[in-house]
What we know:
The protein is of the alpha+beta class. Helix content is 37%, strand content 30%. It has a five-stranded antiparallel beta sheet.
Amino acid sequence: MKATRGSALLAVLLVTTLLLITGMALLSAKSSEYEEAARLRQAAQAKMLAESGLVDFETKVIYGFDFPPPLVADNPFFLYSEKLTQADGTPLGSYTVKLDRSVEKSPHRVWKVTSVGSLGPSDAPVATHTSYGEMDVSPNLREDRKEPNPNYLHWVNFEPLVAGAGGG
Length: 168
């Protein structure tokens, strides 16, 4: 009788141990899923920051006066950054926009614009994303210089380039 009770106790302990190990494995898997979801959310926010930089550039070109500023000493590049905060004033991230005017003259007549969105503090971002666009700066059609260009100051090429985690 004692042997039966002892073996039943051993069986209960074995089943309990197996259930404990299975539960811990499931918790570990859920933890990994939550971490991956957080990384995906951060990557999406960094992408939105990068695209905000392109929209900001487009808005300044269309509605701003004297933007972008004239070339300085034949340097085709112009760079600016903006920091963004949440409604309560806490820092959210930033974007840095780089304008390359090296092909703004004929025959291409486009501006190449790169925007890097950084989520978190600028010295240690938790996620970054780079987006690229080309803006048509030809006021007239290239084939017929007398006709107005319907794509003037519009994006003619846009592509997301690089997403990265912290510090990228």
